[in-house]
């Protein structure tokens, strides 16, 4: 069994996200993150700091990629800061949420 499926993580934030978007396995998750922060900040994609400064884009994509049997991930959450925003990626809801 996938260890991420066994873990339960509850992350709460004092406010609603300033932007929320769903993603699917066909999308490059690093691009979804950059797009979400750009929308939240009203900036262009080029103005968003490099994701490499925070975490490896390939590692991020691998973390949420379908399992080797092709099934999507049903759990797992990661949270990090990018350009002054908190980004939360939730595999259970298939969402990228951006908080101020």
TrEMBL record:
Pfam families, alphabetized: HalOD1
Record InterPro entries: HalOD1 (IPR040624)
Residue ranges occupied by any Halobacterial output domain in the UniProt entry: 25-99
Protein name: Halobacterial output domain-containing protein
Species assigned in the record: Halalkalicoccus paucihalophilus
């Amino acid at each position: 069994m996938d260890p991420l499926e066994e873990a339960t993580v509850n992350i709460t934030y004092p406010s609603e996200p300033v932007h929320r978007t769903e993603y699917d396995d066909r999308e490059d998750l690093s691009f979804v993150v950059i797009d979400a922060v750009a929308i939240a900040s009203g900036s262009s994609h080029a103005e968003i700091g490099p994701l490499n400064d925070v975490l490896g884009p390939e590692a991020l994509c691998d973390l949420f990629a379908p399992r080797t049997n092709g099934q999507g991930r049903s759990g797992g959450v990661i949270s990090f800061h990018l350009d002054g925003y908190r980004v939360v990626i939730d595999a259970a809801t298939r969402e990228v949420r951006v908080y101020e």
